[in-house]
Amino acid sequence: MKPRAERLGLLILAVLVVGVQALTAATGTPFYLTQLTMTAYYTLATLGLCLLMGYAGQVSLCHGAFFAIGAYASAILSTLRLGSPPAAGWRGALAKLGVLVRAQDLFVPGQEYLVFTPWLGFAVALLLAAAAALLIGYPALRLRGHYLSMATLGFGLIVYRFLLGGDFTGGADGISAVPPWRVLPGIALCSDSAHRVGNYYFAWGTTGVVLILLLNLVASRTGRALRAIHEGENAANSMGVDTAAYKLRTFVISAVLAAAAGSFLTHYTGSIGPGETQALRSVRYVALVAAGGMANLWGTLTVSALLTFLSLRGVFGTLDHAVFGAILILIVCLTPDGPLVPLRRVLAHAWRRLRRRPGQAATDPE
Amino acid sequence: MRPGRRLGTSRRRERCRRPASARALPQSREGRRLSQFVQYLFYGITVGSIYAAVAIGFNLIYCTTGVVNFAQGEFVILGGMTAVTFSRYLPLPVAIAAAVVVVMGCGAGLDMAVFRRLRNPSILRMVVITIGLSIVIREAALHIWDEKARALPYFTGNETTSVQVFGAGVSPQVFWVLGVVFVMVAALHAFLKFTTVGTAMRACASDVQAAMLAGINVANMRTFVFALSAGIGALAGCVISPIAMTQYDGGASLAIKGFAAAVLGGLGNHTAAAAAGILIGLAEGFSGYLLPAAYKDAVAFAILILVLFLRPRGLFGSREVGSQREF
Questions:
Q1: A245-279 burial by CB neighbour count: b if 16+ within 10 A, else e?
Q2: CB 3.0-4.6 Å disulfide test: which of A181, B96, B110, B184 passes with A118?
Q3: Percent with pLDDT over 70 in chain A
Q4: Dist. CA A151–CA A134, nearest whole Å
Q5: Please, what is the angle between helix B123-144 and helix A279-291, to 10°?
């Protein structure tokens, strides 16, 4: 996309984000912001997958697992109790460094205890996801086609099993009472309704920033290399593109984005369960990217924001998963470029017809 | 066959999977160890033969059409579910036959509705489509039936009937599973080798254009292969149903284990796939010695990942197959 159109798109996005918030404030329906905030985080993960799937042409069926790795790392570290406040010894030193912070017990008023700061959880989340992506990606990305999807599907299922069976992951119940995260002055990631608007802007702000970064990445030398890999791996290789390294880097970037989204969302909702790792979750991200038109960040953003929001509102009811499956089949069968490209073509055609209408409809060569 | 009550993913059931030889407890420690070994062995071979059936289904479709069908496990579940419903109104053998025919129809329908329409689809798009199909089938099964686990009646005897093998109690259904899968593999082999249709199928697998030139209707052949592969899955789903139960969401893990078997055997080789399926079943069965039952599923996936990384052409596959197929 040309820079001008890109800037216009970002402007529209910003206006929409502010507009929706203003609308909910005006109509007294601020509860929509909660789902909109969650939508932003899921969209963040989807954007990362879009980079991998659309631009590098690799299917990952374990993005739910990366999301959960981030979420669980944050949840476990920030709920790990390390004794009561007057900290001494190594805990005192860590508290001075800001690694340990005080947290309020949810059930016993006045009782305080020490936990790791959410920043540490966040950092560990990103590092863990990057390490896992390197571990899986290094061998798998040397393979082609179905192999990567199957390997990632297998990895996702293993992570699911371990989260479900592990003791420190809370089993099927997951982890709840994850403390708030004061991420910026005045903005704490928590489900408290007083912080709802701040959270909404933080979530969409983060997504917007990531979108800008990804857009720049795609337009850069790296982006061109990735597209070359997608078009023809051997050709790209012979032109001097280190295909394995590029694919691996993209895989790690998208895993880290998913983990970041998971970490944010856990602090926002205050809980996390193993359901996020289910294969169906990962498939959902793939569906959103496919529906957005694969190599199309804007399309992915639009479709993901729309469908995830509707799904979170429970519009699809018990057909939730079926809707995503059907979308996958229909869109990939009917419109290989995604629904937005034909739509744009139709609109452009209509626009041209509209402008040409006065006087020259008869001489229209079409 | 206590350890293998079901193949699916319900957690509640897995907790009670552990007790290995509750039925027969020999006196001596050696005897108990032996009976436990036999129990794990039979469990492994039984689930393994189901993985083998799924793997063969994968292979058939992949060789002829180039599609890796992520919905392969769904055929097994559909077969079991349909047979359970039919068995309410029909005698068991007829119900099973009817279920197999219905699922074969589903398989053929999938090909005609989706894959026939695609021209030169990329691998990426095919992966995405078959994943979508598997979800839609699974959700359809959830809405047609419900989330309860169902089972066919035992073909011989009932739940408590057991045959004593080295002190271990083995359900007669286990022998049904082994027998049916063995006959199926043998029949498929003979079919591919000795019949005209089977030869035509192999022709499609080895060179589509040459097959076309020889006057084979490749499109119909593909539809037939989808039906055949769906039928194999459905029959496997029927015979395993009494001991493993059938639940709408069991397809995904069956599919990935079957795929693991197909890859382990080297894609395109049916006999090797069957052997690899049993190997994976055994690994899963004997993992009971080392791991809690909750992690049992992880064993097959770990094998899959290891094989993909260390020997992507499979244990029995040749290097050329791996590189030619660009898989």
A1: ebbbbbbbbbbbbbbbbbbbbbbbbbbbbbebbbb
A2: A181
A3: 90
A4: 13
A5: 120
Q: In this structure, is residue A298 part of a structural domain?
A: no
Note whether residue A322 is domain-resident: no
- Asked whether residue A344 is assigned to any structural domain, the reply reads no
Arithmetic mean of pLDDT, B270-279 = 88
Q: What is the rounded CA–CA span in Å between residue B185 and residue B58?
A: 14
Q: How many domains does chain A have?
A: 1
- Is B160 contained in some domain? yes
Instruction: Name B246's Cβ contacts closer than 8 Å, sequence gap at least 6.
Output: B77, B80, B81, B84, B149, B150, B151, B237
Identify whether B13 is part of a domain: no
Put simply, the answer to whether B140 touches A322 (Cβ < 8 Å) is yes
| Closest-CA residue to A158 (of A49, A257, A279) | A279
- Evaluate whether residue B80 is within a structural domain: yes
- Quote the number of domains for chain B: 1
Half-sphere exposure of A305 (CA within 13 A, CB side): 18
CA distances from B256 to A211, B70, B106, B240 (A): 34, 8, 20, 17
Contact B292 A165 (CB under 8 A): yes
Q: What is the mean pLDDT of residues A161-174?
A: 80
Interface touch A326/B302, C-beta < 8 Å: no
Whether B5 is covered by a domain: the verdict is no
More confidently predicted of B181 and B323: B181
Q: Give backbone dihedrals phi and psi of A170, rounded to 5 degrees, phi first.
A: 80, 10
Q: CB–CB of B127 and A143 under 8 A?
A: no
**Residues with Cβ < 8 Å from B215, sequence gap 6 or more?**
none
Smallest CA-to-CA distance from A259 within A243, A245, A272, A248 is with A272
pLDDT digits (tens, 9 = 90+) for B137-166: 888 888 888 888 888 888 877 777 777 777
Domain span at B304: 40-324
Give the whole-angstrom CA distance, residue A158 versus residue B280.
16
| Cα of B306 to nearest chain A Cα, Å | 9
Q: Are A122 and A115 within 8 A, CB to CB?
A: no
To the nearest 10°, the Cα dihedral for B284, B288, B294, B297? 0
Partners of A321 on chain B (C-beta within 8 Å) are: 135, 138-139
- What mean pLDDT do residues B244-265 have? 82
Mutate to test the interface with A, among B124, B133, B134 (most CBs of A within 10 A): B124
Task: State the nearest Cα–Cα gap between A290 and chain B, in angstroms.
Answer: 8
Position A357 confidence tier, pLDDT thresholds 50, 70, 90 = low
Domain membership of residue A147 as a residue range: 3-26+35-273
Closest CA to A121 of A73, A163, A66: A73
The reported pLDDT for the residue numbered A191 is 78
Distance CA A344, CA B20 (A): 62
Residue B246's φ and ψ, nearest 5 degrees, are: -125, 130
pLDDT at A360: 52
A309 or B9: whose pLDDT is higher? A309
For A123-159, write each residue's pLDDT tens digit. 999 999 999 999 888 877 776 666 777 788 888 888 8
Beta strands A112-116 and A181-184, pairing class? unpaired
B chain contacts of residue A327, beta-carbon cutoff 8 Å: 132
Backbone angles phi, psi at B217, to 5 degrees: -80, 95
Grade residue B20 by pLDDT with cuts at 50, 70 and 90. Answer: very low
Structure tokens at A59: 């299917």
User: Which of A59, A140, A322 shows the shortest C-beta gap to B127?
Assistant: A59
Residue A260 lies in a domain: yes
